[in-house]
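Deliverable D2.4 — example input (structure tokens):
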């Protein structure tokens, strides 16, 4: 219930999205798989790797689980609610399986390690459990499960990056794509389960990243988002010439693929985003003016408990630095309300920091204790649920006000908008985004524009979530 409050503006609002069938380059498939993904963008990106592995092994995708031979749930553990949702879905699939005994059900992703015994043995909800670093073994595990055995591989790896696998773009708009550049996380924020579910941080071979982006561009894609839990600590050593590739270098390499390929990235940790990255962004117009910079809390005391390694003042200076190098940069953040021991004063610090940074958008959550994390071991989850809820409401209300104010400031401006498709509300309007990542809606008119085109749009209205404009002819 509390969670739904935050869903309006949070990334992981893409809950349980299933993929439409894929017509895969004329290949014949013996069997069908269905995959539903939960959680962060990385999980959605992983599902595209899984689809590629399955296509190579005779499985084609279907958007209808009732006809699938293999039903997969790519799961998220970041908050308790996400886990509950997955359990409910598994029960629905079990009912289908009762009438189709040959059907196999698998759990992938972040819940795999923690809940493998529960799902397989105690509740007998699934046949296959595969962790995020073991997707290459999925075909073997399916074969094992077909013989009636329970098939599990939740081993984490220090070097798996799936660099050589070409993701199958599932449910794609053909214009924007996500490209995974690293996996895992070494940061150990005390509230976060990711370092445990996804393992150590490792960076993917830069050459394979540039190749994937070039390939996407050649297929007509116009925007890539480079994905990692902490992209600014990207580091890859090119053994052919001994050159180290940092995130700033990688950004430049991808920006050089083509000036008409937009480049975005997510997520940045405030402690790691360098001046070099900001300067590289300033040098290339096709690197979008938008940074997602999770703050988590505005109180230095809470930030310390969260192990974020920066203070409120340090974060504020980072925001100033970003805006001095990139004055028109869009900023968004992640905020957690009601972390262990958070006082009313700490909460006010969060609100005032939001006012300071004037975020265009935020992903807002209330704290949900995750087993095994530093916070679960060290601190008491002592902020009562109704207090968490009220604080989250105040945060959401403030963000709604800030988003509307920021959008109003854009009225009268002209932006270059990349068209991504029809507006959700009307097929007579296009929907796209500007460099700052704001959604822009405008009438199609008879300008002969197409999905994937860039168009200059003058803004003449807005809501808190959308800019509304007209093409400049
Ligand atoms: N409770 C609430 N929110 C969390 N996040 C991560 N772990 C938790 C948790 N235990 C949020 C953080 C992070 C985003 C992806 O999810 O804000 O940046
Ligand atoms: Fe979790 Fe912190 Fe790593 Fe993000 S940076 S994945 S919040 S540990």
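Example output (designed residues):
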């Amino acid at each position: 219930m509390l969670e739904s409050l935050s869903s309006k503006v949070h990334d992981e609002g893409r809950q349980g999205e299933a993929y439409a069938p894929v017509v895969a380059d004329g290949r014949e498939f013996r069997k069908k798989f269905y995959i539903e993904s939960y959680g962060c963008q990385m999980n959605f990106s992983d599902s595209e790797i899984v689809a590629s592995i399955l296509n190579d092994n005779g499985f084609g995708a279907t958007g209808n689980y009732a006809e699938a031979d293999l039903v997969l749930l790519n799961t998220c553990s970041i908050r308790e609610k996400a886990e509950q949702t997955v359990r409910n879905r598994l029960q629905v699939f079990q009912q289908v399986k009762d009438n189709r005994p040959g059907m196999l059900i698998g759990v992938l992703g972040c819940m795999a390690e923690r809940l493998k015994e529960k799902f397989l043995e105690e509740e007998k909800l699934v046949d296959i459990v595969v962790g995020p670093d073991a997707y290459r073994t999925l075909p073997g595990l399916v074969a094992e499960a077909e013989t009636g055995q329970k098939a599990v591989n939740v081993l984490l790896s220090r070097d798996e990056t799936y660099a050589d696998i070409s993701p199958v773009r599932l449910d794609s708009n053909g214009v924007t794509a996500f490209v995974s550049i690293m996996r895992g996380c070494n940061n150990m924020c005390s509230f976060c389960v990711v370092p445990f579910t996804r393992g150590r941080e490792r960076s993917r071979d830069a050459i394979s990243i540039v190749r994937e982006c070039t390939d996407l561009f050649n297929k007509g894609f116009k925007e890539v988002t480079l994905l990692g839990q902490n992209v600014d600590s990207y580091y890859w050593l090119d053994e052919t010439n001994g050159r180290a590739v940092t995130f700033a270098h990688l950004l430049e390499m991808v920006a050089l693929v083509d000036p008409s390929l937009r480049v975005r990235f997510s997520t940045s940790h405030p402690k790691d985003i360098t001046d070099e990255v900001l300067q590289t962004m300033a040098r290339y117009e096709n690197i979008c003016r938008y940074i997602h910079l999770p703050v988590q809390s505005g109180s230095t005391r809470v930030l310390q408990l969260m192990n974020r390694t920066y203070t409120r003042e340090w974060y504020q200076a980072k925001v100033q630095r970003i805006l001095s190098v990139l004055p028109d940069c869009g900023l968004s953040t992640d905020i957690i309300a009601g972390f262990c021991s958070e006082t009313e004063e700490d909460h006010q610090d969060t609100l005032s920091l939001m006012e300071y940074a004037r975020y265009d958008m935020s992903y807002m959550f209330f704290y949900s204790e995750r087993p095994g994390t530093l916070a679960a071991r060290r601190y008491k989850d002592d902020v009562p649920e109704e207090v968490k809820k009220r604080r989250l409401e105040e945060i959401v209300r403030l963000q709604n006000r800030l988003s509307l104010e920021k959008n109003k400031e854009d009225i009268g401006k002209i932006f270059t908008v990349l068209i991504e498709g029809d507006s959700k509300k009307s097929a007579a309007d296009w929907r796209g985004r500007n460099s700052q990542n704001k959604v822009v809606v405008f009438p199609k008119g008879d300008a002969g524009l197409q999905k994937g085109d860039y168009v200059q749009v003058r803004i003449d209205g807005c809501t808190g979530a959308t800019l509304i404009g007209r093409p400049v002819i």
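The domain at 296-308+321-409 is CATH 3.30.750.200 (Transcription Regulator spoIIAA).
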